[in-house]
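Researcher: Structure prediction, please.
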Amino acid sequence: MATRPIGLTDGLMTSASATATSKGDASSLALVCGGGAFPRVVAEAVSRSGRRVVLFPLRGWADPEMVAAYPHHWIALGQIGRFVDRARTEGCRDVVLIGTLVRPALTDIRLDWTALRLLPRVAAMFRGGDDRLLAGVGRILEDHGFRLLGAHEVAPEILVPPGALTRREPSPRDQADIARALAVLQALSPHDVGQGAVVADGYVAAVEAAEGTDAMLARVAELRRTGRLRTPPGVGVLVKGPKHGQDHRFDLPSIGPRTIEGAAEAGLAGVAVVAGGSIMADPNKLVALAEQHSMFLVGIPGAAS
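Model: Predicted structure follows.
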């Protein structure tokens, strides 16, 4: 699995309805946490809404300092039974998966007794892309009586809003590059490839695959350094958006400070992400970084279905 949030077009809940869902449910929320800043951001948002949150940090990925501030139970990948037992004891009905995680090999997972009983089903989940794997995890949890929610449903403030977030806006050339990148992502959607693409003056420089966004941007920077990408610095855009038909409860495209820094090192003009279908952890920091590098950051409409 590429290093992307594990936790997350049309059909998104509005901010008002998502907040109502969080406040109107008296049950505790189970937050399965990978790495990165998003678990902290979501936990804080849920707590502010007045709902109790219980963390289930994944060993080797979640930040121990963040976890210590909340009720929590450490789990390893594959400990389905442990999660089910602890979540039920804590009174959790709803579950959110959020944070970064590299797709593991099946042999690297510590299967407990519950998972071993599901081994043929678990093995089948690994025969495909990330969407297939995450959807399979969701179905197993739902079969145990839990309700899977997207992080944006309990913390709508992490959704990227529409429009320019920086003073700088995309130029006509940038807008053409954005449109081309969106078309590329839309064409690749049925193949469960990735959620990001870089286009520079009409040239498709890179498409995100298993390496993830950060490594893709590093590859673009290397292409520029070696002269394989001949457009001058300040030309080109990174575009991120969800796959067509993607389940928004899992693996929504995300941006963070490393995204902005990587785009700057790659010499890009800016970053465009699909509004309402992408998430960001620290908007103020992201905008400040983009401004520092004289880049634009913009929320854009998604490609037509």
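Model: The first strand starts at residue 4 and ends at 5.
Researcher: Thanks, that helps.
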